[in-house]
Amino acid sequence: MINLYVYYFFNYLFKLNSNSGTVLEFIKYNPLMYISTFTLGMLLYDKIKNIKKRNIYSFFTIIYIIFLLFAPYNKFLPYNSTVISLSFIPLIVFLYLDNGFFSKFLGNKVFIYLGSISYSIYILHRPLYILFEKFIGEMRTHADFIIYFLIVFFVSNLTKYFIENKFYQYLCKKYLNKAV
Q1: Can you give the residue ranges of the Acyltransferase domain (predicted)?
Q2: 3-state secondary structure string, 59-74?
Q3: For residue 77, what pLDDT is reported?
Q4: b or e along 18-48 (b: 16 or more beta carbons within 10 Å of the residue's beta carbon)?
Q5: Which residues contact 26 (CB under 8 A, 6 or more apart)?
Q6: What is the 8-class DSSP label of residue 133?
Q7: What is the Cα–Cα distance from 132 to 149, expressed in whole angstroms?
Q8: Beta bridge partners of 98
Q9: CB 124 within 8 Å of CB 159
Q10: What HEC string does 6-55 produce?
Q11: What per-residue confidence (pLDDT) applies to 167?
């Protein structure tokens, strides 16, 4: 429901009577459009956080990855972006509950750091790509991709530390009455 209000707000703001692809791209990939998805993830975590972690979830993870690799070739279920997105929910749950190989592999400092900025990367990569194409041009070389990648990485770090962390601290102080 929130997504719908955000869409109508930006639709009104930009008066979309034209065929402006940039404005439509902005609305489609605006971070505010994904608040409900983020909230759903928090609710899922709240439901699974007390389940005991076990090594058996490494096995479930491997089986499920194999299933995901062959899922596009099935003839019974529709295969669109919504189905693809929803099919990763069990994988995320299995990885969270794992106490074996995947837990140790994904628990190193590099993956922890990348995980801490992953939401910013996810939300910002498309708007930054649109800006990159508008001001620098189409990506044609590996150097263009590296420049774009560094821009996304840098901006994601900035938003993580200056927006996400500040907002998190504010919410903790306001609603949990504890300093972070």
Answers
A1: 4-156
A2: HHHHHHHHHHHHHHHC
A3: 64
A4: eeeeebeebbebbbebbeeeeeeeeeeeeee
A5: 10, 14, 127, 130
A6: H
A7: 11
A8: 54
A9: yes
A10: HHHHHHHHHCCCCCCHHHHHHHHCCHHHHHHHHHHHHHHHHHHCCCCCEC
A11: 87
Task: Check residue 78 and give its pLDDT.
Answer: 65
Structure letter (DSSP) for residue 29: T
Q: What residues form DSSP beta bridges with 54?
A: 98
The CA-based dihedral angle spanning residues 106, 97, 166, 124, taken in that order and rounded to the nearest 10 degrees = 60
- Compute the half-sphere exposure of residue 129: CA atoms within 13 Å on the CB side of its CA: 12
Helix (H) or strand (E) holding 170: helix 165-171
| Span 131-143, pLDDT tens digits | 999 888 898 999 9
Whole-model pTM: value is 0.59
Q: How far apart are CA 2 and CA 67, in angstroms?
A: 33
Query: Given this model, what pLDDT does residue 132 score?
Result: 92
Q: What's the residue count for the chain?
A: 180
The first and second tokens of residue 120, run together, are 């910013």
Cα torsion 148, 149, 150, 154 to 10°: value is: 100
